[in-house]
Design brief:
The chain is mainly beta and about 575 residues long. The chain is built from 8 helices and 30 strands. It binds copper (II) ion. This is laccase.
């Protein structure tokens, strides 16, 4: 629903978040959708444009929501980042919220939007593509978007309630892996309500072309490996919204929150004729968990000159792990070799780094064994989207947020009063994520996601973190790239999938971000595995809170108070024609 796009009074996009029944793999599930579907519509904007304005309506009857622009830097617009308790009051049922932000030059790439309240993110997401202002640096004929997701039969409420319950109830792995919202499934109508027509996602291409395939990790849990039948290699060109020098790879690794683009050269008619088929499987398998999930999508050649044959979107998946094998778990993948396309792009120099901040995500248990809770802490604190009662950024705009930098600096960067990591505007910090063995001596691989801007990934390591280990790992890194979602590995000893343990509290892996804190605002820093985040695996960066940008004119009316926007805004913007109801002045 995008009436009169471009008219002076209209938002660039209107998104409506609502409850609806989905049946990705033919099994019905009450879900949260955006404009009626999962994924929601693919939004496109151009880098360097004045701004993007998206009006988001909460059409749900009883649930709050927010919408986060995953990977988008929020220079000058921290109030548009879309996180409850941190950047805004949640959007109350019946309310709307205006997100308006700029897309800086150089930000062209692949992003997503998703809700940031409760477990609704499992289906409430969509692709957000920032197009180049000029021709892209790589030649391709066309592009395709592949959004990877997890499909659970349990409701959002049951999933998160179990994670917070005593005794703790794990979500388990998803019942299906979706691609652009689709998966083939054989629904059991004696157990669940079923729909018909579900199928493996089909991505159509023409022969003899070059495609940019944009892959978006919108899974709630799964870290997916992916490879293509009879298409043994492709070239990586983008990582999390930044172009990289082409890097050949035979398979892709996509964690929750990560995005990649690769160039795929499609086969000629002669090659297809020789292979005797026009539809090819893409194999998807999860890694780094005790059990593996399996999924697929299909690359289909659009041609009338050959009979359609090959992968069948309406059939049970064959054992693709036999025909399109994917490797076992191994840390780092190609990340030490990938380099930025812009050769002038380099992290701030060591001499600029003022201090090191540690983020020690640790899984703990409490209570008797028959009613045991399991949760994640950072610096001894379990993050909750219910706290603080007034969001950090609202507190700051009210003039009521006091930052104690000295207390934080004395405590590895963490301030125990505000439960945050305060950083002065302009400071350069190294943020070290530690992978710490749990109370039961186990470890997992975590995709840590930073809001606000993209730091440089300086180095990855296994084992204990030390200055010597950091220096050695940096020497191993060809050239740091920027990204917003980075793996923190560990193992193999102690990894959940390896069925071994190590002593509780032992650090078994780490990753370092280097951040120039030039984007004032309150920004989340959290594991993008939604169950871990629900269990408390997150914290908040408070950057230069003394130097926040002013609120746009008229915006305070909807921003400073919960439940402040009209319940009576017409469902269609056509009904508003003639009224100037916006804060944009151009
Ligand atoms: Cu995690």
């Amino acid at each position: 629903m995008q009436p009169l796009v471009g008219a002076a009074w209209a938002p660039d996009h209107i998104l409506r978040i609502a409850n609806a029944t989905l049946a990705a793999d033919c099994t019905e599930r009450q879900s949260v959708t955006i404009n009626g579907t999962s994924p929601g519509p693919t939004l496109r904007a151009r880098e360097g444009e004045d701004s993007v304005w998206v009006r988001v309506f909460n059409d749900m009857e009883a649930e709050n929501t927010t919408l986060h622009w995953h990977g988008i830097s929020q220079y000058g617009s921290p109030f548009a980042d879309g996180t409850p308790a941190t950047s805004q009051w949640p959007i109350a049922p019946g309310n709307y919220f205006d997100y308006e932000f700029k897309l800086a030059a150089g930000s062209a790439g692949t992003y997503m939007y998703h809700t940031h309240v409760g477990f609704s993110v499992v289906t409430a997401y969509g692709a957000f593509i920032v197009e180049d202002s000029d021709a892209p640096p790589y030649d391709y004929d066309d592009e395709r978007v592949v959004v990877l997701g997890d499909f659970y039969y349990k409701s959002d409420y049951n999933l998160s309630a179990g994670l917070l319950a005593a005794p703790f109830k794990w979500t388990n792995d998803p019942q299906a892996l979706t691609v652009n919202g689709n998966a083939y499934g054989e629904c059991d109508s004696e157990v669940k309500a079923c729909q018909s027509g579900c199928h493996t996602e089909v991505v159509s291409v023409e022969p003899d072309r070059t495609y940019r395939i944009r892959v978006i990790g919108a899974t709630a849990l799964s870290f997916l490996y992916m490879a293509l039948e009879d298409h043994p290699s492709f070239e990586l060109i983008e990582v999390d919204g930044d172009y990289v020098n082409t890097h050949k790879a035979s398979f892709l690794e996509v964690a929750s929150g990560q995005r990649y683009s690769f160039l795929l050269r499609t086969k000629s008619l002669d090659e297809l004729r020789a292979l005797g088929k026009t539809r090819f499987w893409a194999n998807l398998e999860s890694r780094w968990r005790t059990t593996r999930s399996y999924g697929a999508w299909i690359l289909e050649y659009n041609t009338t000159e050959l009979p359609g044959d090959g992968a069948d979107p309406y059939s049970t998946l064959p054992h693709l792990n036999k025909t399109i094998p994917l490797p076992d778990e191994a840390p780092f993948w190609v990340m030490n070799e990938v380099t930025p396309l812009d050769a002038t792009q380099a992290p701030p120099d060591d001499s600029e780094v003022s201090r090191t901040i540690f983020v020690d995500g640790t899984q703990l248990n409490s209570g008797p064994s028959d009613a045991q809770k399991t949760f994640w802490q950072t610096h001894g604190y379990m993050y909750s989207e219910e706290m603080p009662a007034t969001p950090y950024l609202i507190q700051a705009y009210q003039g009521g947020l006091t930052i104690d930098y000295d207390a934080a600096i004395a405590n590895e960067g963490y301030d125990n009063t505000t439960h945050s990591l305060p950083v002065r505007a302009g400071e350069v910090v190294d943020i070290v994520f530690l992978n710490v063995a749990s109370a039961s001596g186990t470890l997992e691989a975590h995709p840590w996601h930073i809001h606000g801007k993209h730091p440089y990934v300086m180095a990855y390591g296994l084992g204990e973190f030390s200055e010597e280990a950091y220096a050695a790992a940096r020497a191993n890194m060809t050239a740091p790239i920027k990204r917003d979602t980075v793996m923190v590995y560990a193992g193999p000893e102690g990894m959940a999938y390896s069925n071994t343990t190590i002593p509780q509290g032992q650090v078994a892996g780490w990753t370092v971000f280097r951040l120039r804190a030039d984007v004032p605002g309150a920004f989340m820093l959290h594991c993008h595995i939604q169950p871990h985040f629900t269990m408390g695996m997150g914290t908040v960066l408070l950057i230069g809170m003394e130097e926040l940008p002013p609120l746009p004119e008229g915006f305070a009316d909807q921003y400073m108070t919960y439940n402040a926007t009209s319940q009576d805004v017409p469902a269609s913007f056509f009904a508003l024609a003639g009224e100037r109801v916006i804060r944009r002045t151009s």
